[in-house]
Write a sequence for this structure.
């Protein structure tokens, strides 16, 4: 598996530091409020669980499953909801937790979908931001790292469902997906 990686872009140690920073900001800024973290399956799973463990205020977790990439390395542009929320989010403070913003299509769709349910607030916490690939603008309150336009895997990110279990974020060798 490691042989398919061109190089490590963000190490396990750096991810951990960044997760702690984001968790501290959230703990401070949402003090006294009830927060629900919504993880977007499956890519957000590692970030979601590490982040939640470092948040020091009471918070709940829920998940949605959507998919737009299928087996490929390019977004199809069509977002499908595979699993909806368990919780009612009206008047709640919501933080959407994502591994990566690429075209922005997934989060734009989700913001619109969730805003229709009238949460008290709706923000985004995302570990990776691939700005140069944006098709639709998305404003995320908490961003871990701005990254260049490489196809990335690890720490939840996959290619054809593989590599999610790598503990770092790495650049996938082009020959693997081209
Ligand atoms: O900004 P975008 O271009 O929409 O891309 C970002 C989304 O794509 C990936 O998910 P994917 O649909 O591949 O599902 P997964 O999380 O199960 O890997 C990633 O986890 C984000 O959710
Ligand atoms: O770089 C990426 N890697 C894996 N999944 C993704 N979904 C959007 N961008 C990426
Ligand atoms: Mg994916």
């Amino acid at each position: 598996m490691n042989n398919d990686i061109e190089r490590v872009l963000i190490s396990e140690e750096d991810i951990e530091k960044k997760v702690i920073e984001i968790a501290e900001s959230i703990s401070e800024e949402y003090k006294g409020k009830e927060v629900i973290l919504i993880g977007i399956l499956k890519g957000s799973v590692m970030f979601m669980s590490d982040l939640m463990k470092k948040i020091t205020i009471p918070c709940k977790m829920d998940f949605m499953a959507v998919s737009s990439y299928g087996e490929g390395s390019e977004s199809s542009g069509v977002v499908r909801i595979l699993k909806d929320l368990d919780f009612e989010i009206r008047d709640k403070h919501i933080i959407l937790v994502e591994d990566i913003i690429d075209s922005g299509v997934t989060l734009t769709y989700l913001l619109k979908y969730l805003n229709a349910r009238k949460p008290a607030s709706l923000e985004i916490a995302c570990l990776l931001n691939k700005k140069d690939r944006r098709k639709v603008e998305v404003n995320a309150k908490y961003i871990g790292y701005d990254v260049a336009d490489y196809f990335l895997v690890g720490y939840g990110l996959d290619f054809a469902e593989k590599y999610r279990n790598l503990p770092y974020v790495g650049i996938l060798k082009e020959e693997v997906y081209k």
In short: The mean pLDDT is 95.
